[in-house]
Amino acid sequence: MTPKEFVSLAITMLVLLLSLLTGYVLLALVYEGNPLLVALIGFIVLVVACFLVVYLYKLRKLVDMGERKENQKDENKTKE
Predict the structure, then answer these.
(1) In sequence order, what E strands does 1-80 have?
(2) At what angle do helices 3-30 and 35-79 cross, to 10 degrees?
(3) Which one of 9, 65, 67, 80 has the minimum C-beta count within 10 Å?
(4) pTM > 0.70: yes or no
């Protein structure tokens, strides 16, 4: 994965995260039923948001490690 692809994926995930949170806020404002149901949906949205953030962080580490390996291979080729 190239850095440009990673940035594109990160922006897409952030848009998804913001849309999840916006949808939850709108649901909480409009829904007049059981408040426990709204709290449960909020908890599910929070878990999904945390999963996305952790996934994006781990993916960033993998991209950084891949770049380092490529740089080391390039340096070894130039040394030879």
Answers:
(1) none
(2) 170
(3) 80
(4) no
